[in-house]
Design goal:
alpha+beta, Nucleotidyltransferase, domain 5, single chain, two-stranded antiparallel sheet, 6-stranded mixed β-sheet
């Protein structure tokens, strides 16, 4: 029985048929790639605040938002103004910003989990590039109605809506969509993609030694490229004990780039199956049909080069505020840096109503 995209009557394919098939595969592949990126960006860091790491950290519990008294509300308003005065929210029709969120319920019984991973996936149609920007979870941010706190508290206190409001308030970039997911979906996604090839340093191999042996990898080879299944990819992305939290965000983006490459090689049927299987695992303002439609509109995105960055570009030392380790940022510099990354050569426009 001929396949759906075989030519009728077994005759030679016309150029139009070939092009139609190519475009269909491409937009389905983009949809799968986007979903993979969004699922995994959410999933990778959900395991980062494991009980052991939490015991070692000096981060206070966030089981409840601070009590808002009249003076606290006034302080919150003052804080919000100090973080946003004199600067407009940046939007341009050529740029689409999607906030990728990884949340962790932890042990505090929260309605919403703490966002341990926050990445802006930004598509710039004017510059023809895709940018992954990691936001520091320790940024000391103005959270509407709550005063100042670590950025990742916003999701725990008010879910995606409060987190998006907080990101827009402090970083002054328009967030068009969001997708968030739990870490339990991460290993399933990587395994469904057939694993990922990651170049490991000697220090990373040593750190992952036991788990690699348990999962059929041979760490005796030392530094080099390894094929990682979902379990190993998650462990790699969680690794920070050998260096820094910023290095860990680099590992996260490395995995995301490998996911993108894997998704680009999908056939149309594979992409459809991937979307159907993993879409239910995420929390998003995209519908499944909307994701596919958006992918069809943005065929060229799959061919854009991918760049990555961390904001703040240069991290200040951690300090204690309210029992939490935080980064006190120069918000003018932060906004300048993120605008230069996402909107090079563009002017701000009024967002649509």
């Amino acid at each position: 029985m001929p396949r759906q995209d075989d030519p009728p009557n077994g005759g030679p394919e016309t150029a139009a048929v070939k092009e139609t098939g190519r475009l269909r595969r491409k937009w389905l592949t983009f949809a799968a790639m986007a979903l993979a990126l969004l699922l995994c960006a959410g999933g990778i860091y959900l395991a980062l605040n494991s009980a052991r790491e939490e015991a070692q950290a000096t981060t206070a519990p966030i089981s409840a938002a601070p009590t808002t008294t009249q003076s606290a509300a006034a302080a919150a308003a003052t804080t919000a103004v100090s973080n946003t005065s004199g600067d407009r929210l940046w939007y341009n029709e050529n740029v689409t910003n999607i906030l990728l969120v990884g949340y962790d319920y932890g042990s505090e019984g929260l309605k919403w989990g703490r966002s341990d991973s926050m990445i802006i996936l930004s598509v710039n149609k004017a510059a023809h590039r895709v940018t992954l920007v990691s936001l520091s979870r320790a940024a000391y941010a103005a959270i509407p109605g709550r005063g100042r706190a670590r950025l990742n508290n916003a999701h725990a206190w008010g879910g995606p809506d409060l987190l998006i409001e907080t990101v827009e308030l402090n970083y002054k970039v328009k967030i068009d969509h969001y997708i968030s997911a739990g870490f339990d979906s991460f290993t399933r996604i990587i395994d469904a993609l057939g694993g990922v090839d990651i170049r490991l340093t000697r220090a990373e191999v040593n750190y992952l030694d036991t788990l690699m042996k348990q999962n059929g990898a041979d760490p005796s080879r030392g530094a080099g490229i390894y094929h990682l299944n979902g379990t190993l990819a998650l462990a790699y992305a969680r690794t920070r004990a050998i260096d820094t939290d910023r290095a860990r965000t680099g590992r996260q983006r490395t995995v995301l780039k490998e996911i993108a490459e894997k998704a680009r090689s999908m056939t149309a049927s594979q992409a459809l199956g991937f979307l159907a299987e993993f879409y239910p695992l995420v929390l998003t303002d995209f519908t499944q049909a909307g994701l596919a439609a958006g992918a069809a509109e943005a065929l060229e995105w799959a061919d854009y080069p991918l760049q990555e960055a961390v904001i703040p570009v240069v991290a200040p030392p951690l300090v204690m505020r309210g029992g939490q380790e935080v980064l006190i940022l120069d918000w003018d510099a932060v906004r300048r840096d993120i605008r230069e990354l996402l909107y090079p050569g563009l002017e701000p426009q009024t967002p649509p109503a």
